[in-house]
Write a structure and sequence with these properties.
Helix 3 runs antiparallel to helix 5, helix 8 packs antiparallel against helix 9 and helix 10 packs across helix 11. It is globular, with a radius of gyration of 23 Å. It is built from eleven helices and two strands. The chain is mostly helical and 325 residues long.
Amino acid sequence: MDSNFSIYTTSLTLDPLDIPPSHIFSTFLIGTLTYCAILVFNLTIILTIIFNRKLHKPMYILLFNMPVNDIMGSTVIFPQLVSSILSQNRYISYSACFVQALLAHVYGVGSFLILIAMAYDRYIAICCPLKYNTLMTPNNLLKIITIMWTIDFTMIGLLLALNYNKKICSTKIVDIFCNNPSLMKLICEDIQPNNYYGLFIIALLIVPLLLVTFTYIQILMTVVIKRQSDAKSKAIQTCGTHLIVFLCLEFCAVCVLLAHRFEAASPNLRRATGASVMIFPPIVNPLVYGLKTKEIRQSIILFFYNNISIQKQNDKIKRIRNQLQ
């Protein structure tokens, strides 16, 4: 690291994928199909909520933000990744790398904030049902969503702004995609403020864990006291669904942060954990909510059933017209 580079003219090099030539096409195909699956699964949830008026409720409007966030996160990574698999070109401009890192972190923090908002909604609905319509009005719901995304973009924007326009002494990104820890490793200047702010955000990961845990405990205590079997099973299903998604995200995020914080961590571990954050939650989320949430599952089934019925009727009309001609 004995020379400085201009961030405006330098192309950065992402960590090599080390894919054998014989496996390049199959890996490209798997990556493309995975991205397509993410788009199909999440768009199905989005369209189901949009076109079914019965799902225009606070719980599902908050849930609507999850597939939108997942599509943004996977789109930031997958197109560039699969194209580089096929071309074996791992170069990326500094500006593109910066934008990729920004949106990747917005996706990560956004996932936590959305889950917190959803947990709050379920807490009010189950523990304070008489106050639900008062607290979760359309205006309050809009405020929650606005505050959620404002905090997300502000927090991550400031995090990445601390790195921007700083002198860099290397062009090698030590990960398969751009993120804040890998960008910090390029900088020659003092990065203590960046480190402190980054550690502050890492510490904030404890807050979602505490809030969601408190919410689930309160929900379970409430349904146990009420001794209503139907309410108990519904609450347990809700908590279980949220808990699966939340723990999956929390585990992936902690692994990524630890892999970057410890220099002795294996590069393969860093790659695997980085990829897991961008792959597993966007696939698991729509499957969990689509399969485990009764209203969404029924809406999806009804949607496809109606489309098939309409198609059969159209085909029948065409056959009758052909016979008459």
